[in-house]
Each structure stands twice: as structure tokens, then as C-alpha cells.
């Protein structure tokens, strides 16, 4: 955990003296445990003072930093050394990751417009639940491309949003993969590569979540929110995928647009020095991330980690928008197919709006 609100008792002068720089005052007699940082903050001192007084984050995490438990500690057995990921990450070049940009596919049909508006409603709900102020929100006229805001988010706010987003993002691929698997069994027909991509997407999103859980332990409020959101979300996707897989993939494409936007803004604020704890040279990302993305030495900062995750989301964005454009029952998955011309499969990261059917079929 990078930061958490604690009780007024822990804000006593005696306790503050023991903790030194690890305590920052908040309003209403509370304080904030923070990771000591040596990174330089480019945001103004005036904003920092105002932010400390006005910010009132929700109690998404209630465990003090020195009591943070490991959510999934290594379990020693007599013979097993390690359990590798079922889908090893294929990796990216730095150029590929830096080339990712926010994008948006304009709705073309009534169905597209409906799922787009529903996605905006979901985004509003997440902003409300995670306590974003109006000054921390980006341009409403360009919600998936504008990354500038009057005030940046704190590290604690970012982690709250990441955990909530990734716990939801891991659901669609599993639901779609499960239903297509059952459809294949029921119809006694091949699925032509859709199931594998959808399940791998779900696995990848779960690895994002596991990585962030190594950095922040959710409290009871967050856990209740996730339980309710996932229960509604899973059942809603289950029904909608049975009715219209095309619209469901379009909705997931819009969800991934939001994810790319979120991580792009986070990268920008890290580069601007607005997240001093993550700029600290002593800050280390979790080992699970280093192993999964095979991150090289010297490229293991928080910014590097977010670049990898953003690239994953950009791939999911292109895949789902493309799958929505295809014939759901007959077309093969173009991203895992071999082409007659010998050409490589299309690069989902390169096209935010996805490929049209005639481009890949």
C-alpha cells in the first residue's frame, strides 16, 4: 500500500515524531501514511497545500502500511518450485509501447450509440465512487482522448481506480470465452480461434489486477463495491452476449478505450512529477510484474509498468472493436489466423477503432 488514512490517535505528536516524514496531515483530524519520496514534484506548492486540506478520499483501504499482508504468498511444497503463467506474455518493444495513443471509434449504429452511452454512465459511476473532484476530471467533450486536468490524482487514487477497473475488465473475456466454448460443444463445430484470444484477454487483465494488489490492499468498502459490481456485470454480460455478441464486443472495445485513456493520463502525470512516491529511486514494482512482462534491467519503474499495461489494453481495444465488425458465427479470428499471402496477422494495437471486416477477411 502506498498510502492510507489512519485514525486520529495515530496523528498524535508522539506518534508523528516516531514516524518522521511518513505522516502527512489531512483535514478533520486525520492523517495520511505516505511512502517517503525524494523525487521532485513539478506541481506548485500552492496546489499541494490546497490538495492536502481539501482532499477527502474514500476509505477504500483501511489497513495500515506496516500491516499490509501478501494476498497470494508463495506456498512451499515438497516438489513444486513455481507455477508459471498459463499464457506467457509475448512482450513489446519500447517503440510499440510509446506509439500507443488514446483513441475513439465513433458510434455508427443505434446499438453502438446505446453501448457508448452506457459506457459513459459506467465511467460516471466509477468517478463518483472513487471520489474524483470536478477539477480532477478531463475534458468531457473528448472523454477518451483528452488527458489534461486542472488537478492530478494522487498515487492512492490511481491505485483505487486501477484495482476497480481491472477487477471489472477481467470479466468480459471469460464470459464470452465460456459461452463460445459451450456453443462449440453444443453445435459440434470449431470456434476458429475466438475462445483462445478471449480467455487470454481475461487472464491478462487478471495479471494486471494481481500486480496492483501487490501495491495496495483494498478495504471493506472496496471489496463490497467489487462484489456488487462484478455480480451485476457478469450477469449483464452473460445475457447481452447471448442476445448480441456484436454489441457486447463493441461495449468492451469502449471499455478498453477508457482503460487506455486512464493509463495514458497516469503516464503523463508520472512524467510531470505529480506522483512523487512513484518517482522515488527506491520505489520497486512487484516481482510478479517483472516476471510476467519479462521487464529488462533498468526498465522497471512505475512508468515502465504502466506502459506495458497500457499496451495490453490497446491490444484488447483493437481486438474487441474488430471482433464486433465480424460475422459472429462464421468468421475466424484474424489475430491468430495464418493468411494465404503469408502476411502477418493484423496488429490490434495499431488501430484504435479496430479493423473493418473487409480489411481482415
UniProtKB/TrEMBL annotation:
<dbReference type="GO" id="GO:0046872">
    <property type="term" value="F:metal ion binding"/>
</dbReference>
<keyword id="KW-0249">Electron transport</keyword>
<keyword id="KW-0813">Transport</keyword>
<feature type="binding site">
    <location>
        <position position="205"/>
    </location>
    <ligand>
        <name>Fe cation 2</name>
    </ligand>
</feature>
<dbReference type="GO" id="GO:0005743">
    <property type="term" value="C:mitochondrial inner membrane"/>
</dbReference>
<keyword id="KW-0679">Respiratory chain</keyword>
<dbReference type="GO" id="GO:0098803">
    <property type="term" value="C:respiratory chain complex"/>
</dbReference>
<keyword id="KW-0812">Transmembrane</keyword>
<comment type="similarity">
    <text>Belongs to the alternative oxidase family.</text>
</comment>
<keyword id="KW-0999">Mitochondrion inner membrane</keyword>
<dbReference type="GO" id="GO:0009916">
    <property type="term" value="F:alternative oxidase activity"/>
</dbReference>
<keyword id="KW-0809">Transit peptide</keyword>
<dbReference type="InterPro" id="IPR002680">
    <property type="entry name" value="AOX"/>
</dbReference>
<keyword id="KW-0496">Mitochondrion</keyword>
<feature type="binding site">
    <location>
        <position position="316"/>
    </location>
    <ligand>
        <name>Fe cation 2</name>
    </ligand>
</feature>
<keyword id="KW-0472">Membrane</keyword>
<feature type="binding site">
    <location>
        <position position="313"/>
    </location>
    <ligand>
        <name>Fe cation 1</name>
    </ligand>
</feature>
<feature type="binding site">
    <location>
        <position position="205"/>
    </location>
    <ligand>
        <name>Fe cation 1</name>
    </ligand>
</feature>
<feature type="binding site">
    <location>
        <position position="313"/>
    </location>
    <ligand>
        <name>Fe cation 2</name>
    </ligand>
</feature>
<keyword id="KW-0479">Metal-binding</keyword>
<feature type="binding site">
    <location>
        <position position="166"/>
    </location>
    <ligand>
        <name>Fe cation 1</name>
    </ligand>
</feature>
<keyword id="KW-0560">Oxidoreductase</keyword>
<dbReference type="Pfam" id="PF01786">
    <property type="entry name" value="AOX"/>
</dbReference>
<dbReference type="GO" id="GO:0010230">
    <property type="term" value="P:alternative respiration"/>
</dbReference>
<protein>
    <recommendedName>
        <fullName>Alternative oxidase</fullName>
        <ecNumber>1.-.-.-</ecNumber>
    </recommendedName>
</protein>
<keyword id="KW-1133">Transmembrane helix</keyword>
<keyword id="KW-0408">Iron</keyword>
<feature type="binding site">
    <location>
        <position position="256"/>
    </location>
    <ligand>
        <name>Fe cation 2</name>
    </ligand>
</feature>
<feature type="binding site">
    <location>
        <position position="208"/>
    </location>
    <ligand>
        <name>Fe cation 1</name>
    </ligand>
</feature>
<dbReference type="InterPro" id="IPR038659">
    <property type="entry name" value="AOX_sf"/>
</dbReference>
<feature type="region of interest" description="Disordered">
    <location>
        <begin position="338"/>
        <end position="361"/>
    </location>
</feature>
<comment type="function">
    <text>Catalyzes cyanide-resistant oxygen consumption. May increase respiration when the cytochrome respiratory pathway is restricted, or in response to low temperatures.</text>
</comment>
Amino acid at each position: 500500500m502506498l498510502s492510507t488514512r489512519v485514525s486520529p490517535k495515530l496523528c498524535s505528536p508522539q506518534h508523528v515524531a516516531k514516524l518522521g516524514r511518513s505522516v502527512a496531515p489531512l483535514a478533520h483530524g486525520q492523517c495520511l501514511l505516505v511512502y517517503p519520496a525524494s523525487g521532485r514534484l513539478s506541481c506548485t506548492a500552492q496546489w499541494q497545500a490546497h490538495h492536502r486540506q481539501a482532499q477527502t478520499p474514500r476509505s477504500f483501504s483501511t489497513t495500515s502500511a506496516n500491516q499490509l499482508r501478501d494476498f497470494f504468498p508463495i506456498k512451499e511444497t515438497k516438489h513444486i518450485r513455481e507455477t508459471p503463467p498459463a499464457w506467457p506474455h509475448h512482450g513489446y518493444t519500447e517503440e510499440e509501447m510509446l506509439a500507443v495513443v488514446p483513441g475513439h471509434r465513433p458510434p455508427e449504429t443505434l446499438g453502438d450509440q446505446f453501448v457508448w452511452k452506457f459506457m459513459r454512465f459506467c465511467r460516471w459511476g466509477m468517478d463518483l465512487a472513487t471520489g474524483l473532484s470536478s477539477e480532477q476530471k478531463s475534458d468531457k467533450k473528448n472523454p477518451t482522448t483528452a488527458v489534461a486536468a486542472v488537478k492530478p490524482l494522487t498515487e492512492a487514487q490511481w491505485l483505487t481506480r486501477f484495482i476497480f477497473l481491472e477487477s471489472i475488465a477481467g470479466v468480459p473475456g471469460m464470459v464470452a470465452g465460456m459461452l463460445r466454448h459451450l456453443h462449440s460443444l453444443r453445435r459440434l463445430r470449431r470456434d476458429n480461434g475466438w475462445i483462445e484470444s478471449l480467455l487470454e484477454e481475461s487472464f491478462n487483465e487478471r495479471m494486471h489486477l494481481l500486480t496492483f494488489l501487490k501495491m495496495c490492499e483494498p478495504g471493506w468498502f472496496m471489496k463490497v463495491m467489487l462484489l456488487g459490481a462484478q455480480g451485476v456485470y457478469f450477469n449483464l454480460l452473460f445475457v447481452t452476449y447471448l442476445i448480441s455478441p456484436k454489441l457486447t464486443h463493441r461495449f468492451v472495445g469502449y471499455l478498453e478505450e477508457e482503460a487506455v485513456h486512464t493509463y495514458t493520463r497516469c503516464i503523463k502525470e508520472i512524467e510531470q512529477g505529480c506522483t512523487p512516491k512513484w518517482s522515488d529511486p527506491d520505489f520497486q514494482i512487484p516481482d510478479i510484474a517483472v516476471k510476467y512482462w519479462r521487464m529488462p534491467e533498468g526498465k522497471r519503474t512505475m512508468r515502465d509498468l504502466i506502459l506495458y499495461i497500457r499496451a495490453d489494453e490497446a491490444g484488447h481495444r483493437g481486438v474487441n472493436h474488430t471482433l464486433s465488425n465480424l460475422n459472429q458465427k462464421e468468421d475466424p479470428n484474424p489475430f491468430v489466423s495464418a493468411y494465404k499471402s503469408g502476411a502477418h496477422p493484423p496488429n490490434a494495437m495499431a488501430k484504435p477503432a479496430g479493423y473493418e471486416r473487409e480489411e481482415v477477411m
